[in-house]
Design a protein that fits this description.
alpha/beta; 8-stranded mixed sheet
Length: about 525
């Protein structure tokens, strides 16, 4: 073994060598993860990791924590929520302590929120529980998924370390880990205060040392929303994707292919800082191939939510795209040479409830949402008549503010779902409750998706779309703008109509949700009512 556990030179690395899930002492993995070794050897008192997902840094955080405990320092370990804390401890921390003799033999206190090993304690807390930020004295702090934490409560975390310098003569040690979200917030703000290390590799052709950048080494922009692979200039178009070969980055100087997993070194761009900061992306970690990233990037071109995920989770960089909204060009992409019929044999629908009902009815044609009806109903009876005339088999309707009225309509016209918009909780797939005929979706995510359908030309509009509902269809569809607000003490994106009517935008969005449940762009999910 290269290092003895008692060594003070690289304590985190020494602990890692005992770690039964450790990858550093496995030659096959070590060869392609050289970038991890300097991180385990880094003994800076404050370290910041702005990272992509699933890159091994959370594993480092555990090793660092155990090294602190072994050195006699207690640790305050913060996770975003109590629910996440419980899952992490139960599924990752507890199995490690129980399965590794080196940990298990030294464990004297073992419950969800508190572990004690080698006489020192680690307190695992959720940032959303204020009471957890008291009655624990620590000499080291780690925050995992910083950007998802309650920023207000995090300010109290340093109080747990306030006596460290007085008692030990040394400043407390801190580790901050997170996928970034927005510029100048959370982990990105912390990274900007650090020495800002980037992983550099050397071009074997011209000798140029450089960090890998998706928009410099892999793709080039050809229009506002269109990119092409740089490698296509050297190999036949899409050949790497079709054959399964990994895409190579091109050198920023000589434009020749490079080995993105080649040996390299960390280079600080702000060397005057005492904070040790690392930017880690999938471009060099070896956890996926670049054809996979290219596929995700193409799919995200017209969807701000997906693009934010690509920046944050794949590239490990913040994303900011305020001001997104529908434009006339989006309508023109979808304009078709037809007029909407007066009735239909089958349809799906979306209904926005207010002083009047804004109604959108569609059918799926060759993978596109074709509009059959866009208009208003002034009474519940008129709404039911429209749904009946177009034989609407599935429709989504907002549950607020007229929930009692909406439920009465559901009773009279089967096939409906009441939609509950969530603003702060990412849902992924919609959550359906068949008992009360309700569906929960993330408001921003669903509106991102419905906008993307227009931008991609996957909606068919009648040729008179400009005149629908006396022009209110167009104005209300264009009313909301994507902007950033603070929700639960952390920033997030929302669609804000700025006080302007946007009923048609939401009716269209509810229709998009119904279309997804019927197989539009997804696996079909049958909704059957008894």
């Amino acid at each position: 073994m290269a290092y003895q556990l008692a060594s003070e030179q690289y304590p985190a690395l020494c602990i890692a060598l005992f770690h039964h899930r450790n990858t550093l002492d496995q030659p096959m993995t070590f060869e392609r993860r050289e970038w991890l070794i300097p991180i385990y050897k880094d003994n800076a008192r404050c370290k910041v990791f702005m990272k992509s997902v699933q890159c091994g840094i959370s594993e480092y955080g555990f090793c660092w924590t155990m090294a602190q405990l072994h050195a006699g320092r207690s640790v305050f370990f913060v996770l975003p929520t109590k629910v996440i804390r419980d899952k992490i401890v139960a599924n990752r921390i507890d199995p490690l302590i129980q399965s590794v003799d080196f940990y298990r033999k030294e464990s004297t206190v073992d419950n969800t929120g508190l572990k004690r090993l080698w006489g020192s304690a680690v307190s695992f807390v959720g940032s959303n529980v204020l009471a957890d930020f008291g009655n624990f004295t620590a000499q080291a702090k780690i925050v995992d998924e910083l950007d998802r934490c309650d920023s207000k409560n995090l300010e109290l975390a340093d109080d747990r370390l306030s006596a460290t310098e007085l008692l030990t003569g040394k400043k407390p040690e801190t580790v901050l880990i997170s996928n970034p979200t927005l510029p100048n917030y959370g982990i990105h703000a912390a990274y900007k205060l650090s020495d800002q290390k980037q992983w550099h590799i050397k071009c074997e052709h011209c000798g140029e040392w450089q960090p890998l950048d998706w928009f410099v080494n892999f793709v080039k922009q050809t229009s506002d929303n269109d990119y092409s692979l740089l490698q296509e200039a050297i190999v036949p178009p899409c050949s790497s994707v079709e054959t399964g070969r990994d895409l190579s980055p091109l050198c920023r100087k000589c434009f020749k292919p490079m080995d993105r997993l080649a040996r390299g070194e960390w280079v600080a761009e702000n060397s005057g800082s005492e904070i040790s900061g690392y930017h880690i992306s999938k471009l060099f970690t070896g956890q996926c191939d670049m054809t996979e990233l290219w596929t995700k990037f193409v799919a995200a071109q017209s969807n701000s939510g997906l693009m934010q995920g690509f920046y944050n989770s794949e590239l490990g960089i913040p994303y900011d795209a305020p001001g997104d909204r529908m434009s006339f060009s989006d309508f023109e992409k979808c304009s078709s040479d037809y007029l909407m019929p007066l009735r239909a044999g089958s349809s799906i629908g979306g209904v926005d409830v207010g002083k009047v009902f804004h109604v959108h009815l569609e059918q799926l044609v060759n993978g596109k949402r074709q509009k059959l009806f866009i208009g208003i109903a002034r009474t519940p009876k008129e709404l039911i008549d429209i749904l009946t005339r177009y034989n609407c088999r599935l429709y989504v309707m907002d549950s607020r503010p007229e929930m009692h009225l909406a439920k009465e309509i559901l009773k009279q016209r089967p096939g409906g779902l009441l939609c509950d918009y969530l603003t702060s909780e990412s849902m992924g797939e919609p959550s359906i409750n068949r008992d009360d005929r309700s569906i929960k979706v993330n408001r921003t995510e669903s509106m991102d998706e419905s906008l993307a359908a227009y931008m991609q030309g996957r909606v068919l509009l009648p040729k008179n779309w400009r005149d629908l509902d006396n022009g209110d269809f167009v104005s209300q569809m264009m009313a909301p703008t994507r902007k950033m607000v603070m929700v639960r003490n952390r920033p997030t994106f929302v669609w804000d109509e700025a006080g302007q009517p946007d009923h048609h935008r939401h009716a269209d969005n509810y229709c998009h949700i119904a279309a997804k449940l019927s197989g539009f762009g997804e696996v079909r999910r049958e909704i059957i009512w008894i």
